[in-house]
Amino acid sequence: MVGYIDKIKEISERLLKEGTVEMVIGFQKGTLPMMNTPCFAKTPEDVGNFVWDSHCGINLANYLTDRKEKIGVIAKGCDSRSIVTHITENKIKREQIFVIGAPCKGMMDRHKIASLFETEIRSVAENDGKLIVTAGDGEKTLEKADLLQKNCAVCAHRNPVIHDELAADPVEDQKDVDRYADVREIETMPPAEKWDYFDDLFSACIRCYACRNACPLCYCPTCFVDESQPQWVGKSTDPIDTKTFHFLRAYHCAGRCTDCGSCERACPMGINMRMLTKKLEKDCIDAFGWEPGLDLNQRPPLDTYKMDDPEDFIK
Amino acid sequence: MGIEPGRLHFSWISSAEATKFVDVVTQVTDAVRALGPHENFVKHMPKVA
Amino acid sequence: MSTEWEPKIVAFFCNWCTYGAADLAGVSRMQYPPNIRAIRIPCAGRMSPKFILAAFRNGADGVWVSG
Fold first, then answer.
1. Does residue A277 fall inside a structural domain?
2. A10, A78, A161, A219: least buried by Cβ within 10 Å?
3. Within this chain, do residues A217 and A162 fall inside the same structural domain, yes or no?
4. How many CB atoms lie within 10 A of CB A170?
5. Are A77 and A48 in contact (CB under 8 A)?
6. ipTM of this model?
7. A191 touches chain B (CB under 8 A)
8. pLDDT confidence of residue A59
């Protein structure tokens, strides 16, 4: 995985030199370990800042919305599906983007790694499936496979769906992953128990909207939480308002979410709001046989009408 | 998500189906009545004197 | 006034379908429970999940969407 970077740099440099694109979006080292930030390279020299390791969890499709110029973008499997969603939703044109595909074996769960240490993590290096983490209270060598982001552990589309060039050979997709074990578990709970579960899940939320901002799907010019006339949801951390925010945000992502995990990754409180988006993802598969972002030519289920759409919930 | 499914109903009634309308109102009311008052998802506003 | 609890149901009716049916039920003097609070929407397509959550949040005991 670390080896990708040379190829990524080479492609990006070439694209910028030839003028095929005006900008390449990739990752650069963040100010904190495990927090790589997006890097917008506009000259071939900028490409030198690019990095690629197991902490590039941010979904770069987020930065494509309504752009007018030609853009090169580095895309993992989930990013590429979000790009497809962007194209089908007319947020960017296919001709405008040059997708540098990066087959991905999963990104690291920064919350989980941080929880293994008492003190702040100072540096993280990686080497052949291992992470060497140095914190104030010592150094530990950890197995990468144990520390995958939760969405990466159950990822079924590791290779980019669309790409103009690949940075490495496609990786083998995970077979027989049970994506919805946790969702099914909650589905069987009686309402009161469900209520307690979600009450507990969102009790830590501080309404910072990092999840919304990190989400490539949340591109509305005015988000419903920022509307004041009418005000659909209060702005405090009142538990009902918090839940209204999370429930509605999840609904807005129904049939569009590619489970890239950006929301959970961005959350400073480590809330697993993917439980909601995953439930709707499962419902979309069950009701419409739809997985988002796999095909450029197929319209999403919520903007098409079929005679055999399920309607058994209607009296 | 913790609201009983019986509290939310969907139906399709044409403008000529007054009888069906009456039937469904009765059904919906009975279903909600059976569940009792809804308390979970209500936002309690601070009382202003 | 009786103190017994009566459910409050917020009902979203499509202007062209159920609202018409409700109107017809009214002019035909049919009897039905008085627990619904009808809200007319221009079309069932105007419906949005946030209406449902807003109703529950403001104390509705039930919500009924009818096209």
1. yes
2. A10
3. no
4. 13
5. no
6. 0.82
7. yes
8. 93
